[in-house]
Amino acid sequence: MKTRSPDRRPALVALLLGVIAGWAMLWLLGGAFVLTNEMGGYGWPGYVLNGWLAQGDLLTRIDTLRTPLHPLLLGNLGEHLGSYADAGILISSLSCALAVLCAGLGAAALSGGWAGGLAALATGMVLGIYGAPSVTNQYPLLAGLTVSAVGLSAVASRLPGLATGLLAGGALGLCMAAESRGVLLVPAAVALVGIGMVRSHRWGRLRLGVGFALALSAGLWMRATNSEAQHARMVGDARGLARQAVMMDQQRAVIRRWVQQEMDIHARCVALSTDDLLTTDYLTTDCAAAVLTNNLTVRIPRHLPLGAVLTVSGLLLLLLPTRDRRGAWAEGVGAGLLAGSSVLMLAVVTPMPPRYVIQQAPLLVLIGAAGAGRLAGRLPAPLPGLAMAALTGWVLSGGWDGRARADRPALDTAYDTYAEVHRVVGPMLGEHDRLIDCADLNLELALLPRRVRSGDLTRDVPLEACAAWIERPEETPGETYILVRPGRRLRGETDVSEAVAADGGWEEAAAGVDWALWRSVSR
Asked: What are the two backbone dihedrals, phi and then psi, of residue 238, each rounded to the nearest 5 degrees?
């Protein structure tokens, strides 16, 4: 007598509903796909400037710590949409939506549709709570590509074929093209694809391997080509070594800055020099232990809707076998231990601010949900579905210590003051008006792709240009403005705000707490 196969429709419905619910969370909590024409998020002025440089084929001027992928997307899409702000929101929203989908697909491939639905929902919550879909920087893109590299590789291990190989290899290649730390995901992705190749027949093994290799190679070629264009100013045989040295020095400086901001870490790291960071010897120091402890007990748990205990337990729970296929424990090694170790490596080398954790959060959610699904799968039917449904309800209610509730601040709100100036001044400017930002409030960047001043575009307008503008504003059929605030000093130590007020050719048009917009009048 044939054994009736289990009905998989409820699990598939759970996966579909989880993905839809995750996308809804991105919109409700994070403002996904709401094109407000406002910049936001950590360091957006630098990312916007990089985007403008990239679309103008000025890759050599991009920040050497960044790769060109996000700038190329932002700059070209910004020019097409007529708003770099909306382009940044669209890129971040699509990236977060991709993270929700791939976290769900990856967890479903590892532990069934119930786990996939939970992973998708929880990913949408954590990204939405922190406003990741509406920021104008690269971290949502990195989050989407990070979880895609592992999630789609898990799908390839379950459904080996040419299409899944191309998807998994493409996701890993793009992740490495977007961020150097993407190399940490190579062991997990290769292990999962290797499992799929072992499970497949000869031609299926060939199709999966070829698809994965081709797509990965395309991503690596993109990274190499863009990197060469970005660093073309470095000449000679030492170009590669010089490039790596510059990037290493910059990353060490970032880590040193974060270490100094945490007093308990700083006390245990004060003996180390900047050159000691990011070395193999550093891993055995008391400083490394302090950084790891702070990340695992303070920084990372704030971003885990499933709670720290369940998420970490998922690393081991994924080693449990499943009832429907052999070798499922090997998937746990690839998706749990190897992918989890990539997060652990980052956690030991640098204190992880919210934007770093957001990049890794979907991957951690995938592991936690898949581990819970493996444990629930050991129960007799219909208890697995009931157990996962109960866990989903627990997450929606707030979970452990309210970690999943939308009661935490958005990411890096310090940069929101720039957007406030844009909201006031932007609508005041007519088509032919001209403006120079001498207040370092990045208004000229916020207005892109519209140019309101001839000449080069930079983060900080040179004081010489401000002095020349006060004496002789740029001629235009419209109005001419200058944005100032106290603190910037022209030649002779004259404050730029005082210089504009003392000049008889300007009148105040608008003002905020610490800034003022002046309009040129007839001379």
From this structure: -85, 10
